[in-house]
Amino acid sequence: MPNFEWKGKNRAGQATSGTLTAESKAAVVAVLRKEQITVTSIREKGKEVAIPRLRGVGVSHKELAIFTRQFSVMIDAGLPLVQCLEVLGSQQENRTFQRIILQVRQDVEAGATLSEAMKKHPTVFDDLYTNMVAAGEAGGILDTILQRLAQYIEKSVKLRAQVRSAMIYPIAVLVIAAVVVMIILWKVIPTFAALFSSLGAELPLPTRITIQLSNFVVRMGWLIIVFIVAIYYLIRQYHKTENGRRTIDGIILKMPVLGVLFKKIAIARFTRTLGTLITSGVPILDGLEITAKTAGNAVVEDAIMATRKSIEAGKSIADPLRGSDIFPAMVVQMISIGEQTGALDAMLNKIADFYEEEVDRAVEGLVSLLEPLMIAFLGVLIGGIVVSMYLPIFDLVNKF
């Protein structure tokens, strides 16, 4: 029978380890449970495999949510950590994620805690994830924490999908409109211009403007593309600076229609993240710092960090939030009540539920509003070009 090296904790919570000969890992767990030892890892001697380190590129939030959900179920069933990670790693279809899970397993086998092992892979397991896992390990409620993490990630994925659905439609319509107009000006209008020139027709102002635009596109089309790419690159580079990020993020929040939507998204993300962290036992100062990093907007991040400084100075959470232009009075009031009654985490989660529903309605309303506006915009743009080309033809017909 194979020999198994095991590590665990006794009734007093002290770390212990040893070697057992048994038919399987399950048999080892059964023997140790009779001795009231909680197993943290089991390894069959002679089957250690060195796993190369790998960055967590290409691991989606959906894959992380599924992993977390399955992990919580297995921990709840009483399986040792290492065995859970081994099973989840072997079943993972994403090879990158598979290697990371097995690296975490190897580090846990070597004596690291689960949170310490996960911190080595920040591209997959961020500060929020590892801090919640650390809180779960310290409180002996790792399965519950993983369930909360899975719920949080699933809600976060849904929120991202809502943002994409709100932005993709207008951007796609504008891009298609730009391509169609460029093709018309580049290929179609020159044919009409040559026809009008051969007929010697006197061209009305709209037609002359359209032909001049066409000439510019034919001669300098490459310059337009370079200009658009350059503007996009400069905006991205400016956004990477501290001042640029604050300026652009501030403009986004002040935009008509879209600004209101992004504020609701920021409130939903802030309350959901902080509520999940506090419920999981993460200290509020650490929770606010993690929440600020995941805010996704520099203006919101500044407001959260101001709140953190306020708490450090012995003040309340609500006061700095009240001074910002992001959080409505109703949200600040509910947070203040939650703080006074000692139910801040429950109040934050209720606010998050409410604003996630608000984001749903706002996205639906935005799409409904944009559809007729985009159709009208395309009609005026394409129709204007077509009419400007037919005006000289109408004049010629009237003369004859």
Describe this structure in words.
With 400 residues, the protein is mostly helical. The protein has three domains: 1-48; 49-125, Receptor-associated Protein, CATH 1.20.81; 156-400, Type II secretion system (T2SS), domain F (Receptor-associated Protein, Up-down Bundle), CATH 1.20.81.30. Helices cover 75% and strands 5% of the residues. It contains 15 helices and three strands. It has helices at 25-34, 61-76, 81-91, 95-109, 114-119, 127-139, 142-199, 205-239, 242-254, 258-279, 284-293, 298-312, 318-323, 329-341, 344-399; strands at residues 3-9, 15-21, 38-44. The chain has a three-stranded antiparallel beta sheet. A hairpin with a 5-residue loop joins strand 1 (3-9) and strand 2. Helix 7 runs parallel beside helix 15 (344-399) and helix 10 (258-279) runs antiparallel to helix 15 (344-399). The protein is elongated. Mean pLDDT is 81; it is low at 48-57.
